[in-house]
Amino acid sequence: MADLTAHNLDVRYGDRRILHGVNVCARAGQVTVIAGPNGSGKSTLIKAISGEIPYQGKVCINGTDLVTLKAWQMAALRAVLPQETSIAFSYSVAEVVRFGLEAGAMGRSQRTSALIETALQRVDLTGFSNRLVSQLSGGERQRVQLARVLCQIWEPMGDDGPRWLVMDEPVANLDIKHQIALMDIASHYARQGGGVIAVMHDLNLSAIYADHLVLMKEGAVAIEGAPSLVLTRKSLRDVFDCPIAPNVIAPNMPFILPQSMFAC
Fold it and tell me: Would you give the DSSP letter of residue 15?
């Protein structure tokens, strides 16, 4: 099965229940976007389906229960671009990107340098190999991490099925040029047969790039489907608890504006 699914997923932090019986299905060949207010459980869901935190319920990747996979098997199937990454030591850009190859690839040693340079070129960091990551801007560091995860799951399809790119707020530190570039990379990865799951706050980028959009509220899925069906006035008001008006600027392409802006 070419999908990544969560069945009746619950997550608790102490006595606090963060996720409430969440059911989500992301399909390979598509970009699935998870959106919602702060504290709605988006990042927790990403961590759970990536196997990074304990959960109750069931998570399957390509039909295999996540709990049956060893760490190296998970690393070969999915790569995670976290919301924030701190690097404690003075690693160069090339060294950080190489971590992705070491985590997810087997038998690529002869191609390591070429893959690193190609990955850096894809994220607009040509010539950065020897720069120290600690000396880069926040957006540049984010693009280094993107190059790392791309190296980890370089081929969208493997012998064990599609590979998965899982991203938590990937465009948060990026300027508009690199936001679009990152989402283009993600979209292209999906079109090649891989799977993409991304937490996003930008509803307009979500409308453009998502094949499947999941809106969460208070630890549960509020509504999901195609962006043109999900991003309605009623659903946006219900989920975000504020007046938001979708406008259609192209067939099946809503554009979101806060209603208070209409008075300007």
Answer: T
